[in-house]
Amino acid sequence: MLSTRIVKTLDSIQRYSIFITHCIETKDLNSGERLHSLLVKTALNLDTFTSNRIIDMYSKCNSMESAQKAFDDLPTKNTYSWNTIIAGYSQRGLFFEAYQLFDKMASPNTVSYNSIISGLNHNGFHKDSISFFKHMQHIHTRLFFDEFTIVSVMGSCACLGALEFLPQLHWLVVVIGLELNIVVSNALIDAYGKCGLPDLSYQIFSQMLERDVVTWTSMVGAYARASRLQDACQVFYKMSPKNTISWTSLISCFAQNGRGNEALDLFDQMQEEGISPNGFTYVSVLGACADQALIEKGKQLHNHIIRCGTMSDLLNVYINNALMNMYCKCGDMRSARMLFDRMPRKDIISWNSIITGLAHNGHSLKSFEVFAKMREAGVKPSLFTFLGLLSACSHAGLIFEALQIFDLMAEYGLKPGSEHYAVLIDLLGRKNRLEEAVDLIERAPTQSNHVRMWGALLGACRVHGNKDLASRSAGALFELKPCDAARHVMLSNVYAAANRWDDAHQVRRLMDERGLKKEAALSWIVLELSRNMGCLVLHNFCTLKNVVKLDSCVTLVAQRYQKTKLISGRPISCAYSLEEPNISSNMKLTQARVIYSVAPAIGHNQEAHPESNLRVPAIANALEKMELTPKHRGSEVLELKHCQPATVEDITSVHSRAYVSGLEKAMEQASEQGIIFIERSGPTYATASTFQESLFAAGAGLAVVDSVVAASRNCPNPPVGFALIRPPGHHAIPQGPMGFCVFGNIAIAARYAQRIHGLKRVFIIDFDVHHGNGTSDAFYEDPDIFFLSTHQDGSYPGTGKIDEIGCGRGEGTTLNLPLPGGSGDAAMRTVFDDIIVLCAERFKPDIILVSAGYDGHVLDPLASLQFTTGTYYMLADSIKQLAKHLCGGRCVFFLEGGYNLDSLSYSVVDSFRAFLGEPSLAPKFDNPSILYEEPLSKVKQAIQRVKHIHSLANCFDVTAAAVKEESIVTILCIAAVAAEENLKKASVNSITLNVSTISSVFPIR
Ligand SMILES: [Zn+2]
């Protein structure tokens, strides 16, 4: 009888246990509660085993209060009871309760510790998790942990990148013989990978006897994180079987490393192998489409997602956000907006994406509308929302609105960050409202980055030539960073420029008192000449004792140059030696199709620097190999040898005299130290020969200009010039070097063409991947020099925005066309036809100079445009035709960037062939299979904006297409240009109307 009852009870306990398991699995709290009350009625709640299951059920169904009650009601608690309730609290992040219970426990076992450690790890308290583990070892006299402890603590190390502790854990694993445990090994692979040591991951991986899908995926992830894509692929392709997670991990690895095309290929492969993507996969590939502006592919994915949309997780808010981001970045704001409006659920990221997307695509007003809707919907805007709104204002030049938005932040309890201030200060600066910018900085809370703000203002002051405010900004910077020697120097320069010598001395005394020394390598940068004042500060700032009057200084400078014999008195009208028997009678000049000079700056070299002394020799070798040198071509190709260096007068037509003498002075130091860095913020170096070799580079450019001009005076079809010179020049600003560049070779040549040859109007085309900020600065206010730059949007040095158009009398003679990353041949052809030709025709140059940067080549390591050898052939050929058409064929190319020696030299070779009128060899050099789709819709948008800003489209389309009589064309052009001048002040949109008005005045057939 008794035994039957026991059996019955055991039976029912087992049955209940099955029910409880079912409740836990289905998270069915209601049934669980009913079951619990049944157990209370039958007093089975006093059974420890059953009750433990009930506690577990409550805690897994997220009802900790009931779990605690069941725990409290239990008369006999065993270790399992304690562990269950502790784990419940710990997993939910309720550590106060968990610790309290843990402390009450008589003898916690490994499981008790693990509950806390894994809870801390899962809830992001990684440091606490490691400390708790250390505490655990400290309390117990022997090693006290198991594989689960280790896996949790390793997870924490991985998240913290805690490299010092990870090897100790690894050692513990070996000591207690867990190294063959697959779960532990997987955790080690993952942890070393996350700490950036994929080789250690691989060591463990390769020693494993058994691997599962997690092992392989972790190894792929470890390589992926270190951007070792090839290794990641190798592991991935050996893996079998692959699941969705492993595919996704490789796809996202390619996408995040800017290799969107490969990510998309992998995505296709994954589907071919019948593995279905999950939400994360879609987010990754959509990101790839967004970065590459692959709108068509993005739309296909969108369709795909909708087709598979029956899967519940597929249309969740993350995927919708990723889709919207893709549409915004591809500039398809209609689709982005439609998607946004139809999203069933929107989070703050959705709102911010659409607001920022509209702002960046020039729909400022629409972004304000969405913001209004956001407020109506009661969604609290974030700092990011306001950054989007401010950039909308910045794009449209709306200062009033920007200030309002800025003030609005306080209403939401948000404090503007440095980025918000920077956008606003930049906007005010561009509009020359500098005083307001100062007010703004002064209003900024003390903890914000004032150094950055004053720095931005100083930049704006420089552009607008506001000396007083520049002085004030520098002063503020100086106060903020009293121990920053460079700021002292900057301040002293400002004082010197303002003729405030007492103040300059005061700064020196302060520096002495504070024991500040300038970094030696910078010493010469501080030397500043103020021509207006007629004074020259000749000394290193630390010994700024004498401010010498101009007379004595000039003598001093002259003596120095004579002593070093760098600058001889060569006649500047002729920059190469006529005595040289090999070259350059006028006869020879007119026979040539190409004239080039070579200045390779062999001594100016830093090992492993991309701007290396191998560049020009690589080109020269390729020309030789492709039989494009005088040796092979006779009189068709002319190389100017023995070119003279440029004079100080040539250089100082662009650069400050202080810079030139400072650089020369720095040579002493360079020869002592071998190499010095001459640009504080950037990668420009100097060696002992840099000064001299830079003079030679500039001089070799001038020599080509001389020859081309001389030939053009004697024949209608002069040769094209090419100065194969380095260091490059277009980043060098008037006051100093920048971005690999020492002297602005092309700017110097432009001034030289004006001064020596009387060629007043110079048209400069800069197609380097980087913006030629130095050239731009030199001529920003000069109406006689048109600077047209195409460059990759967002690349170094960040200048060259589309709305920088020159200022003062030079307004309109600077044109910037930033191209989206991925732009290639098709983009550049459109730009040439739609922009370059129109601008040049309108400007009517006397000579065209070209900053020929070959770093836009798809193979170049420094940027991500997709030009090919064929693109450079097209440019060389088209520019040559343009020069022939507009300015007697006078055209000189200057080498700027280009850092893949192969693509650089082949592209120059093909440019030479274009000059010679020979067909391109591009098909031999280019590999079309490495190209991906160009972001043409973005390119078109940019072109439209430029046309709009520079009023390029309408007036000349009308004249070119419809008018035959030259006189009428001229009159029309003059009228249109005049109309434009007026229109700049009024609304730009009315240009169309005005052109048609003009057309009606002058009848057009
Ligand atoms: Zn460049």
From TrEMBL:
Matching PROSITE patterns: PPR (PS51375)
**Where are the membrane-spanning stretches?**
none
| UniProt keyword list | Chromatin regulator, Repeat, Repressor
The family database entries (Pfam families) matched by this protein are listed as: E_motif, Hist_deacetyl, PPR, PPR_2
Q: Name one GO biological process term.
A: RNA modification
Domain Histone deacetylase: start-end pairs: 609-912
Please give the Gene3D superfamilies that the UniProt record associates with this protein. Answer: Histone deacetylase domain, Tetratricopeptide repeat domain
GO molecular function term, any single one: RNA binding
Q: CDD domains recorded for this chain?
A: HDAC_classII (cd09992)
| Swiss-Prot/TrEMBL cofactor(s) | Zn(2+)
Report the protein name in the record: Histone deacetylase domain-containing protein
The species this protein belongs to is Nepenthes gracilis (Slender pitcher plant)
Tell me the organism's taxonomic lineage.
Answer: Eukaryota, Viridiplantae, Streptophyta, Embryophyta, Tracheophyta
